[in-house]
Amino acid sequence: MPLHYWIETSGCQMNERDSETLAGICEALGMRPCAVPEQADVAILNTCAVREKPQQRVVSRLGDLNKLRTDRPGMILVVAGCVAQIAAEELAERHADIIVGPRCYDEFEQALREQLPGGVMVEGDARPVAEGLPVARNDTLKAFVNIIYGCNNYCSYCIVPYARGREQSRLPEDIVAEIEQVVCAGARDVTLLGQNVNSYGQDLPGDTDFPAILRMADAVEGLDRLRFTTSHPKDMTPDLIQTMAELPSACEHLHLPIQAGADHVLKVMGRGYTYEHFRSLVQAAREAIPGLAITTDVMVGFPGESKAEFDQTLRAFEELRFDQAFMFKYNDRPGTRAEKMNPKTPNDEKQRRLLALVALQNEIARDINRDLVGQSFEVLVEERDHKSAGYMRGRTRTNKRMIFPGDDSMIGEMVTVRADEAFLWGFTTKHSPREDADAEA
Ligand code: SAH
Ligand code: SF4
Ligand code: F3S
Fold first, then answer.
1. Which of 2, 14, 170, 423 is the most exposed, having the fewest neighbouring CB atoms within 10 Å of its CB?
2. How confident is the model at residue 118, as a pLDDT?
């Protein structure tokens, strides 16, 4: 009987990609995946520390897994990811066997082999991330490829630079090799990952910058869709917008986190841009790239954010009309500059602001999609829609969801589908792609 591993992933796409490395390492040791922790010999929590809740959840998940150990005494508990990097001691006290930070996955195999009861800690932010670790990908059609690890920006509220260390760009040849590999294995949609992709290459000799990497990726034979996240507004250049506009594979989707609408708040957040600058980027990108969808991240209730400053965020959302937004209440993170900033916004006020912003944004997103009803979109068919029989789901180049009639034989194909009805997250239609193609012929 092979041993089984189970992984639960929280946090961003970097963690999703890292979980594929953790899985790859387990499989290289002969293990098989399992769907529930009750069957696992190795249970891995790949954790996120960006806000308080997911971090607290790690502690309670670890408690649940420890209870399972009464029946499975040999089970190994692993905590990986950002919480492992910033709270290793606490995790060890809570009986995690292996605690491994995001830059140290090359040591995970050795730690697993040793299976040391009592805990192995592998952390260290100064060390470089290793190349060439095994990977077991979750998805064949869509793949994540890291281009730069870590972050040097130290926005005043953010834990990421502490959890992921300083910026380290991967070599262009390693990036291109990984893209070629995933495309060869069937990927049609590739997302390049970094906390600030615009910093790519600054730590490398030579002058390969982020637009250059996009051009190299676009040149890979067989790649249909190229995406990237995250682009920091302070470092976004006209060259990047131009490159996105020119490259056939570059999708019409830009994730550009605004964080706040008021200049004073942006300043104390340490973001390095003004609202006016952000607005000019949105405008330039929309002018250069027809049909562009723009998504964002935003926080409400930053320490000292006044009612009037929050209203500026509302007005920014009204003016810029994002296709989607990830909206958060500000959270204190240990050791950050904002943790020491005052006055704190009370939780009920943060909640009120969040609800007001969510209501506004949902209305905008629905309106935007409603205006697109009747248009046809290229859709990459991903999977069966589990809610309605006879329907498939996929995504447009703008990263909106499309639910349409079809069957499994379409998985992995690009089809053209006309949108019938709009929702917050995309469209549904009764038109089957084939009928649609006939109609257009
Ligand atoms: N590198 C990305 C952000 C990664 S973290 C960027 O610079 O945009 C993802 C999002 O989590 C952030 O954009 C921010 O909106 C939110 N976030 C980060 N720290 C937070 C905190 N302390 N409280 C609440 N939200 C936070
Ligand atoms: Fe955090 Fe700022 Fe770095 Fe993004 S750019 S990861 S928000 S420090
Ligand atoms: Fe979370 Fe770490 Fe990503 S803190 S958002 S998993 S970089």
1. 2
2. 54
Set out the domains of the chain in order of their start, with CATH numbers.
4-114 (3.40.50.12160), 376-440 (2.40.50)
Q: Looking at 83-231, which runs of residues are DSSP E strands?
A: 98-100, 120-122, 142-146, 148-149, 168-169, 189-193, 225-229
Judged by average pLDDT, the poorest of 82-91, 120-129, 153-162 is: 120-129
Q: Please give the radius of gyration of the chain, using alpha carbons only, rounded to the nearest integer.
A: 22
Q: Is the pLDDT of residue 117 over 80?
A: no
For residue 124, the model assigns a pLDDT of 62
| Closest to 403 in 3D by CA, of 381, 375, 424, 378 | 381
SS3 content of the chain, % helix, strand, coil (to 5): 40, 20, 40
Percent of the chain residues topping a pLDDT of 90: 88
Closest to 282 in 3D by CA, of 325, 322, 329: 322
Rounded to the nearest angstrom, the distance between the alpha carbon of 334 and the centre of ligand 3 is 14
Which of 425, 441, 438, 318 minimizes the C-alpha distance to 372? 425
- Indicate the burial class of 30 (C-beta count within 10 angstroms; 0-12, 13-18, 19 or more): exposed
Model confidence over 153-172: pLDDT tens digits? Answer: 999 999 999 999 999 999 99
Instruction: Kindly list the distances between the CA atom of residue 385 and the CA atoms of 391, 402, 404, 405, in Å, as whole numbers in the listed order.
Output: 5, 10, 9, 9
Q: Where are the beta strands (DSSP E) in 36-152?
A: 42-47, 76-81, 98-100, 120-122, 142-146, 148-149
Which residues line the pocket of ligand 1, CB cutoff 6 A? 50-51, 157-158, 160, 195-196, 230, 232, 257, 259, 297, 299, 328, 330-331, 333
Query: Taking the model in full, what pTM does it have?
Result: 0.94
Average pLDDT rounded to a whole number, residues 332-354: 98
How far is Cα 34 from Cα 425, in angstroms, rounded to an integer? 30
Are the CB atoms for 298 and 259 separated by under 8 Å?
yes
Q: Give the amino acid at 126.
A: A
The answer to whether the CB of 279 falls within 8 A of the CB of 263 is no
Ligand 2 within 6 A of CB of 160: yes
- The DSSP H or E segment spanning 63 is helix 52-68
Look-up of token digits 């009120």: 352
Task: Choose among 192, 104, 203: nearest CA to 152.
Answer: 203
Say how far apart CA 176 and CA 167 lie, in whole Å.
Answer: 19
Ligand 3 atom at minimum distance from 54 CA: 1
